[in-house]
Amino acid sequence: MSNETIDALGRRLRLDRVASLISNGATISRWKIPDQRAVPAVVRALEAERIVLAAQPNYLYELQQQSAASSEPEPALVSEGDPGQYALAKLRLREAHHLAKGEKVLIAVIDSGIDLAHPELAGMIADSFDALEADEKPHAHGTAVAGAIVAHARLMGVAPEARILAARAFSAQNRPPRPPPSASSRASTGHSPAVHASST
Question: Does pTM top 0.90 for this prediction?
Answer without folding.
Answer: no
